[in-house]
Amino acid sequence: MAGPPRQAPPQDPPHRVVALVRPPQSTFELGCVAEVFGTRRPGLPVRYDFRVCTPHPGPVRTTAGYDMLVTAGLSALESADTVVIPGWTPADEPLAPAVRQALRRAHARGARLVSICSGAFALAQTGLLDGRRATTHWYLAASLAERYPRVEVDPAVLYIDHGDLATSAGAAAGVDLCLHLVRSDHGAAHAARIARHMVMPPHREGGQTQYAAPLPADRIDRAPAMDHSLAPLLEWVTGRLPEPVSVEDMAGRLGISARTLARRFADQLGTSPGRWLLDRRITAARTLLEETDLTVEAIALRVGLSSATNFRRRFQQALHTTPAAYRRAFRTTSGRSRKSHDTAGTNGGTTGTDAGTKRGTARGPL
């Protein structure tokens, strides 16, 4: 006689993401957040519960010329797991005491606070960014640094994630940060599937400096210069991760010295060549752990980390967990049948701008 039917294991409740908006609200930055966290897609599990709130519920004027109705007030932040400030217009607008208190209370409770573009100005007013790296739109970076000297402003990167606080560069970099947060929460494979639905890469190479307009003469010393884009080199290296590519090989590819290469990486990506290369290898390894049955030894060879021992050590240093534990946490169902069709150049992961990432060149086999 058949026993009672098995009950499905209880699922964790969706992670609640709340966007804090105010007039005039930029529709693009808000749209970036809603697209990643608030759009339901066929075939993908619902991992987030997206909501919008405003200090004064009711019609909220937008920069696109129409009003949107927001019915939730600041009390929505009390149950948020992540609070996103999708732009702050104008950037010098003072933060109302009630908003400041609500954000600080949410952070103290354990919520993750995130800003996109000029939203960093609002986040800086809470005092939570003091003594920490942050970024914003390249055009606003000098102003952010001048207004909030206790914040270490990095104008070169697409985003910076401290775990409890995260900031992104301008406009579309908000999508980069949101996809990075999904990777951190649910693994690279889930983030890649969302990016595929959005018809965009799950990870963009380089920093925002490559998009910056030439600076006027009176501002030329207030942001890093960019004489040569690293994009072709990054593409060349990403396609050769299984090979023992070294920093010297990268410099030789451009016909420059290793010191000059390091300076360009620092200016354009906010990291070192060795650290960037190691991040790419770890990113590829994460996807293979999630989506294939390959052994640790095989993955180590596919991503150019030479041995299982070196792979385990590098993985532990980067993610503070073991490859086996990561695989158990983020394994996808489809990965159980995939053994040999993955490549080490799979995109995803961070840009080397995470707050915990050291800027020094990684030693040993990369």
Automatic annotation (TrEMBL):
Region (Disordered): 327-366
Presence of the UniProt keyword Transcription in the record: yes
One Pfam family from the record: HTH_18
Biased composition range(s): Low complexity: 352-366
Entry superkingdom: Bacteria
Key word Transcription present: yes
Keywords: Transcription, Transcription regulation
SMART domains found in the cross-reference section: HTH_ARAC
Gene Ontology terms, MF aspect: DNA-binding transcription factor activity; sequence-specific DNA binding
Span of domain HTH araC/xylS-type: 231-329
Protein name: Helix-turn-helix domain-containing protein
